[in-house]
Write a structure and sequence with these properties.
Layout lengths: L6 E5 L2 E14 L1 E10 L4 E2 L3 E2 L1 H10 L2 E2 L7 E4 L3 E4 L9 H15 L5 H14 L3 H13 L2 H4 L11 H8 L15 H20 L17 E3 L24 E3 L2 E3 L2 H8 L4 H9 L3 H9 L7 H19 L1 H8 L6 E3 L17 H17 L7
């Protein structure tokens, strides 16, 4: 189960989501460590391996599910001890099945529990023995350690589910030799009927003011170095160095980048040189050689916000390009700054975030919504 254990790794400049769980590695002695599982199917068990390689690690005991009495154990930089009458709930088969489920969950695919419940719904809609057999097989495909969570009912656990897929007169897998009688089966059917009714009556859990995540795919605003404005600039126009003059406090700057670097210094000569530079990179060079204004590091994000508002207010055509990005996450590259750029997931992407803010303000203006001052 993923829970709140969220992590990621970078691969070819992309962030691959993942999660982790505790595990024992046997490398001579036993080591308590973290097993990292990623959405692309790679698992880090002291080295990235494929799912097939991970299975071999399990079978060989490198990833240990059997813990011998008296074995020496270490948790790096934390503690060391010896096993005394250890017991474990896992087998290689169970752990492998749980890892497969986790990869499905990370990719938003139905895991074994969801596949089982879908098969149960199909059986309830058409209660044939063939459909029951499919549902029963799906139930036993859920890792044993996870079956009691399947219904999300910790009072009943998975008892109604097992009874339903077993059927009257069938032998329960969890209690060998015990069969399901008709009364138990009727109770299980009633449980699922009541469950379906409660699910149908459950109010929507969608936030009243809209979804929490963007509906549109993310847009990557790669670095570019435009020399002059274009009739149809596309998303290149969303770059801060795109030639779009901005008027700020009586001065006109060739681009947001020119204005940002000019305003970053109190040196009049450097400020004028940044303003009048032919290219954006020359504006940066002119200002970077001077001393920053006092408090600039703490004020720069507010300054950039004002400059972006000026750009898109003063250039309606560019505002339309920004609005056309819908609600997409804007990933902005800026190799010179980890503050302004995302830079392969290593930066803070403040430019992208501020562009999304200005976009939202433009939407509010279109809708006649006036934010509180």
């Amino acid at each position: 189960m993923i829970g709140n254990r969220i992590t990621s790794r970078m691969a070819d400049g992309l962030r691959v989501p993942g999660t982790w769980r505790h595990a024992f590695i046997r490398n001579g002695d036993y080591f308590l460590t973290d097993l990292f599982i990623y959405a692309d199917g790679l698992i880090d068990c002291w080295g990235l391996v494929t799912l097939e390689e991970f299975e071999r690690k399990l079978r060989s005991g490198w990833v240990a599910t059997e813990l011998p009495d008296g074995a020496w154990v270490s948790a790096h930089d934390l503690a060391a001890w010896r096993f005394s009458e250890p017991s474990t709930w896992l087998t290689p088969e169970l752990l492998l099945a749980e890892v497969r489920d986790t990869i499905d969950q990370l990719n938003g695919r139905p895991d074994s529990t969801e596949r089982c419940l879908a098969a149960v719904d199909a059986f309830l809609a058409e209660p044939t023995e063939e459909n029951r057999a499919v549902a029963r097989a799906a139930y036993y495909a859920i890792p044993e350690t996870q079956r009691h969570y399947a219904l999300g009912d910790m009072d009943r656990k998975d008892w109604p589910l097992e009874v339903l897929v077993t059927g009257p007169g069938g032998e329960l897998g969890s209690v060998p030799g015990e069969t399901v009688d008709q009364e138990e089966y009727d109770e299980a059917v009633a449980y699922f009927e009541d469950r379906a009714k409660r699910r149908a009556e459950r109010p929507s859990r969608v936030p009243a003011d809209g979804p929490a995540t963007p509906m549109a795919p993310a847009i990557h605003l790669y670095e570019s170095y435009p020399v002059r404005a274009s009739v149809d600039p596309g998303r290149q126009a969303l770059r801060n160095d795109y030639p779009a003059p901005v008027l700020v406090d009586g001065d006109t700057y060739p681009s947001v980048t020119h204005a940002y670097w000019a305003l970053s210094t109190a040196d009049p000569a450097a400020r004028a040189a940044a303003r009048d530079a032919e290219r954006a990179f020359a504006a940066r060079a002119a200002a970077a050689a001077a001393v920053r204004r006092q408090g600039w590091e703490q004020a720069r994000t507010a300054v950039m916000t004002a400059l972006l508002r000026a750009k898109y207010t003063q250039h309606p055509a560019l505002a339309r390009i920004l609005l056309d990005t819908a609600d997409a996450t804007l990933v902005y590259d800026e190799s010179d700054s980890g503050h302004w750029g995302d830079n392969g997931g290593r930066g803070r992407n403040w430019t992208g975030r501020l562009l999304e803010l200005v976009r939202a303000e433009l939407r509010a203006e279109q809708a006649g919504i006036t934010p509180l001052a």
